[in-house]
Amino acid sequence: MNQTPDYIQELRSKFPILKTKVHGKALVYFDNAATTQKPLEVIERVQSYYASENANIHRGVHHLSQVATQGYEDARKLIQNYIGAGKESEIIFTKGTTDSINLVASSFGGLLQEGDEILISAMEHHSNIVPWQLIARKNKLTLKVIPVHRNGELDMEVFETMVSEKTKLISITHISNTLGTINPIKDIIEKAHSFGAKVLIDGAQSIQHGKINVSDLDCDFFVFSGHKIFGPTGIGVLYGKEALLELMPPYQGGGDMIKRVSFEETTFNELPFKFEAGTPNIVGGIALGTAIKFLKSIDTKQAFSYEKRLLNYAEEELKKIDEMTLIGTAAEKTSLVSFNVGKIHPFDIGTLLDKQGIAVRTGHHCTQPLMDFFNIPGTLRASFAFYNTIEEVDVFINALKRSLSILK
């Protein structure tokens, strides 16, 4: 295998944490599906905001408030352009993907009536299961689950039979956080719209691995977290089509989401502020804008293509190990691999890998129904970003072999 290209090494140099040592070993960070690391400009932007711009935003007449407001709203514009939304007002800042889904479940889901149906899939993260269970129970809705094949692909034949006039919403992950499966969301959206149903795309695992254009997809909602795309934690985005957001009632009440309040009646603010109650994560929004700028400054097509090389190489090397079982072998995958080795618990392997400086994720990955489907307690998951290297994959494979020699 060829060594890591120079342009990847250059990108890697922009992420200071990658120089860290863990237990005396050079850090190999293969937990990018849980959270991505941050480039230096994002880290510095957080510091500079608190050092010289800190103030509450919107309606402030003083200089710092106006500077902070401008930075926050500039970030909204950057995100709008990056994901191809039609209007700034269609970009709602939230705490993250989970918060965004809960907003739609509470607000849009609250408009649904007894007997209406919501479709999710068997590979969903708990964050895209539980909110729908809650609103389904409250409003007496029917929640249906699209099955998956053993290779981790959606059963599209069954899906075709599930959509009907009763279907009001399909909420589905773009890319599985456990399997790496890339779902055919354009086909799903087209089918849903033919019956008048709306579609929410959980983009938590896709936003950092490829170009997203919500207008081209024609999805009704798209959600993601800032920390999955090289930005801070505690900030996320809900994109929604303007007509739907106008129709939906507010999710939370408080400051900034109102026009006028009296004890008799309250009138709500215009979009996007109707859904942004209270003081937001100002620096999070601004630094997420910086992360978007960073991505726009690099050759993402080249970087994302390199991630695919990493995945292919890692899977080839893993398959050479005795008793190796890859969980998720879909034809279309992102740079993530889940696996088990024989009957060894993934936690035990992960613990020994950590002692060798390797950061991976073990467990059910917040997809317990999927683990039940495969009849396993969990998996060991290695997930890659463009700042990872081929050499790191070799280090990981060798560390894995050493760990297995101890555990077998």
Protein architecture, described:
The chain is of the alpha/beta class. It has 14 helices and 17 strands. The chain has helices at residues 6-12, 40-52, 63-83, 97-107, 130-139, 156-162, 185-194, 214-217, 242-247, 282-297, 300-318, 346-355, 368-374, 390-407, and strands at 21-22, 25-26, 28-29, 91-94, 117-121, 142-146, 167-173, 198-202, 221-225, 236-240, 258-261, 266-268, 324-327, 336-341, 358-359, 361-363, 379-383. Strands 4-10-9-8-7-5-6 form a 7-stranded mixed sheet, with helices on both faces. The protein has a 4-stranded antiparallel sheet with strand order 13-14-17-16, covered by helices on one side. Strand 13 and strand 14 (336-341) form a beta hairpin. Helix 2 packs antiparallel against helix 10, helix 11 runs parallel beside helix 14 (390-407) and helix 12 packs across helix 14 (390-407). The longest helix is centred in the first third of the chain and has 21 residues, at 63-83. It is globular. It starts with 5 loop residues before the first helix and ends with a helix. The model has no long low-confidence stretch (mean pLDDT 96).
Oligomer: single chain
Helical proportion, percent range: 25-40%
Rounded to an integer in angstroms, the radius of gyration calculated over CA atoms is: 22 Å
Number of helices: 14
Terminal residue distance: 29 Å
The side-by-side strand order for the widest beta sheet comes to: 4-10-9-8-7-5-6
Q: What does the overall shape look like?
A: globular
pLDDT averaged residue by residue: 96
Strand-pairing-aware structural class: alpha/beta
Question: Regions with pLDDT < 50 over 5+ consecutive residues?
Answer: none
Number of strands: 17
What about the largest sheet? 7 strands, mixed
